[in-house]
């Protein structure tokens, strides 16, 4: 077994120490190999100057391995064996090593959606509870550009320290069902006859939402595959004529994809006054749609995602990441300049 294959839980970072656990019972013969693998992972990603791994020191129900940072300085990797799990910890006086190591280990966390846990710990609004669920299932991805590259956004031209990936929602049916139920409650206050999803990310969401509210659905292609191909699939023109259409997508940035769908729906005789998204990045999409006389509705948004009312035990976000994300959202162009990246002012196609 390699260290990267260990499922990890119960993360805690404090002065000089990271604690975490694995639900696996590690066999004594595996411990030395795992310690060696951890050292190589640590040296490759966190501290390339690390000198080596020392011999393990065995106690009654524990093993401790020194990691030589220099000839005079060591860190320690500890394994503590419980009846049904193994507790691990990493100790060092170099505080600067803990934050990146925490982010690296966090990628191996066991994802267990727990709505009751969130309800108990998030004293916020529905957008904040929904955002907490997205954090909990790993739909919110972050990067500081050191352990992995910044994410490519805006048609893969610009960079971002945060990426909202809702394609994983069908993998967590209880979470998906909760979000759809809350979306249906919001939409109960609006009148529409049809639901239109946008390929490809929102088709499953649009279909399940349509089923929840007992409305027919179809979908809009992002672009024509060939000249004769229709942009709207699954509906005939006479079925669309004078019908009120709710446009649905998973996220919105600028709103240009939605604009193409809205214009096509209206060109075919449909009425489109509302667009609903699961997540609004608050980067101009609302204003873009308002210019088209289409109101943007959302389940959650950027402000809820970064709310201090969502505890770090749920987000597992470090303060360094939090400040980086705020810096990016407050001034994307300035953030790109600071990082040495070109910034592209994109225009709708």
Cα gyration radius (Å) = 24 Å
| Structural shape | elongated
Average per-residue pLDDT, rounded, comes to 93
- Spell the H/E element sequence: EEHEEEEEHHHEEEEHEHEEHEHEHEHHHH
Query: Into which percent range does the helicity of residues fall?
Result: 25-40%
Oligomer state of the chains in this structure? single chain
**Total DSSP helices:** 13
Query: What CATH first level of the largest domain would be assigned?
Result: Alpha Beta
Which structural traits does this protein have?
Rossmann fold, elongated, 17 strands, 349 residues, seven-stranded antiparallel beta sheet, alpha+beta, six-stranded mixed beta sheet, TATA-Binding Protein, 35% helix
Task: Chart the SSEs and their pairings.
Layout: E1 9-14, E2 17-22, H1 28-45, E3 52-53, E4 57-58, E5 62-68, E6 74-81, E7 86-91, H2 98-106, H3 115-121, H4 126-136, E8 140-142, E9 151-153, E10 158-160, E11 162-164, H5 173-187, E12 194-198, H6 203-213, E13 217-220, E14 232-233, H7 237-240, E15 244-252, H8 256-267, E16 271-280, H9 285-290, E17 295-301, H10 302-305, H11 312-315, H12 319-330, H13 332-339
Report what the structure shows:
InterPro entries: PRTase-like (IPR029057), PRTase_dom (IPR000836). Keywords: Pyrimidine biosynthesis. This is Phosphoribosyltransferase domain-containing protein. GO terms for molecular function: orotate phosphoribosyltransferase activity. With 349 residues, this protein is an alpha+beta fold. It folds into three domains: 104 residues, TATA-Binding Protein (2-Layer Sandwich); 80 residues, no CATH class; 135 residues, 3-Layer(aba) Sandwich (Rossmann fold). Helices cover 35% and strands 25% of the residues. The protein is built from 13 helices and 17 strands. Helix 5 crosses helix 6 and helix 12 packs across helix 13. It is elongated and about 75 Å long.
């Amino acid at each position: 077994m390699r260290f990267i294959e260990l499922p990890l839980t119960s993360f805690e970072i404090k002065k000089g120490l990271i604690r975490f656990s694995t639900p696996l019972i590690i066999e004594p013969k595996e411990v030395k190999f795992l310690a060696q693998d951890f050292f190589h992972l640590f040296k490759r990603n966190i501290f390339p100057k690390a000198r080596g791994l020392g011999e393990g020191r065995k106690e009654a129900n524990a093993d401790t391995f020194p990691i030589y940072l220099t000839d005079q300085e060591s860190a320690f990797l500890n394994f503590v064996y419980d009846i049904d799990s193994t507790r691990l910890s990493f100790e060092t006086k170099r505080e600067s090593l803990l934050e990146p190591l925490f982010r690296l280990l966090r990628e191996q966390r066991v994802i267990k959606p727990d709505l009751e846990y969130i309800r108990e710990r998030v004293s916020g609004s529905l957008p904040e509870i929904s955002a907490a669920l997205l954090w909990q299932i790993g739909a919110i991805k972050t990067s500081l550009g050191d352990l992995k590259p910044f994410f490519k956004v805006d048609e893969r031209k610009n960079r971002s320290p945060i990426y909202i990936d809702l394609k994983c929602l069908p993998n967590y049916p209880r979470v998906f069902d909760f979000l759809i139920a809350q979306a249906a409650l919001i939409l109960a206050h609006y009148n529409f006859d049809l639901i239109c999803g946008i390929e490809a990310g929102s088709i499953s969401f649009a279909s399940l939402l349509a089923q929840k509210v007992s409305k027919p659905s179809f979908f809009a292609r992002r672009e024509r595959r060939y000249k004769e191909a229709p942009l709207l699939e699954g509906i005939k023109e006479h079925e669309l004529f004078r019908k009120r259409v709710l446009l649905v997508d998973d996220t919105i940035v600028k709103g240009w994809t939605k604009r193409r769908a809205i214009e096509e729906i209206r060109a075919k005789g449909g009425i489109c006054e509302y667009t609903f998204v699961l997540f609004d990045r608050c980067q101009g999409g609302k204003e873009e749609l308002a210019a088209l006389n289409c109101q943007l509705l959302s389940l959650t948004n950027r402000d809820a995602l970064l709310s201090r009312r969502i505890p770090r035990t749920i987000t597992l976000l470090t303060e360094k990441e939090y400040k980086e994300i705020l810096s990016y959202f407050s001034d994307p162009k300035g953030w790109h300049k600071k990082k040495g990246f070109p910034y592209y002012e994109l225009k709708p196609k």
